[in-house]
Amino acid sequence: MYEFNGMGLGLGNLSRLSNAKTRSISAENFTGEKGKGGMAAEGTGKYQASDLGIGWKVSPSIHVEPKTTVTLAEIEGPGVIQHIWMTTHPQHWRNLIFRVYWDGEAEPSIQTPYGDFFCNGWNERCNVHSIPVAVNPAGGFNSYWEMPFRKSARVTLENVGDDRAVLYYQFDYTLTAVPADAGYFHAHWHRSNPLAYKDVHTLADHIQGHGHYVGTYIAWGVNNSGWWGEGEIKFYMDGDREFPTICGTGTEDYFGGAWNFEQPIGQYAPFHSPFSGLPQVLKPDGLYRSQQRFGMYRWHIMDPIRFEQDLRITIQALGWRNKTQEGRKYLPLQDDIASVAYWYQTEPHIPHPPMADRDFLENV
Fold first, then answer.
1. Contact 237/307 with Cβ under 8 angstroms?
2. For residue 364, what pLDDT is reported?
3. What is the location of CATH 2.60.120.1390 in the chain?
4. Which Gene3D superfamilies does the record associate with it (predicted)?
5. Is there a contact between 97 and 160 (Cβ–Cβ < 8 Å)?
6. Fewest CB within 10 A of the end CB: N or C in the chain?
7. Where does residue 230 rank: exposed (0-12), middle (13-18), buried (19+ CB within 10 A)?
8. What is the tens place of the pLDDT at every residue in 246-260?
9. To the nearest 5 percent, what fractions of the chain are helix, strand and coil?
10. End-to-end CA distance of the chain
């Protein structure tokens, strides 16, 4: 997509040399400064390293206190965040709000709960094996989304919960020239709980500018018995109003599956692939876990959805009514749907709606 300059280094040009400078920010090097890693004399590992001294994992993590916001990274550009790794306990995944600000902007371009950004929206870990997002045992969250910036990048994490979170993290980035046609990465979280009858879940309706849409994650909680995924996803672009330019044929179809994800008959089949997957199927346990819950992703890496002015994305929640003599009819559902929309665009962007409060974020 780009001329080679240290960005977009794929297998096809991995051997090509560059003047880009590689840096990394973590609790062992808060600034990413060259030659300054592993120098901490204080940190969460001080006691464990007390017999060994500086340089022996004195500061592997940080504490994110309740009702506080910490800055994880501040980088002067131009450059590109190429990889993010983080881990913390699942109880915090919906209570930690992940935000990223590009080029000194006042409003974040990325604003989502921590777990949902990494395709884990149910505070219960599932592994994810895909190109841009990988979740590995036992809760290693990895993002490989390319995130260019021209002046600066600032990454924060807000703890809206009541408990301290212990966070391990690393941001791997390069300082390099950024092409004029490189867009800025954005992500937006939205939840409908429950979705109003005959309404649609809106993934995003505030995207304005020039860009392309690159991915969807949905944490879907089903409130009815029966199949729940007949609904269509719709992309309204560049002035579309009543009817969209792109209209899907069913929820499981959009996420790369077919026929209810049912294989073998009578069972859901979780799956992973580079660009789409159903990695999480949470079944009722006959007691307190009464509803089925699902996690799904679809990456538009090979087929980005391009827009020049604006983009709005919705998805229907649709099941089946009981069969009559004439046949079956659709049943609009009132499910619990939380989504993350991922896209690149020019700046400035329309500010994201305010993040929901802790009570609305919570899922149990």
1. yes
2. 77
3. 20-182, 185-354
4. 2.60.120.1390
5. yes
6. C
7. buried
8. 999 999 999 999 999
9. 5, 40, 55
10. 42
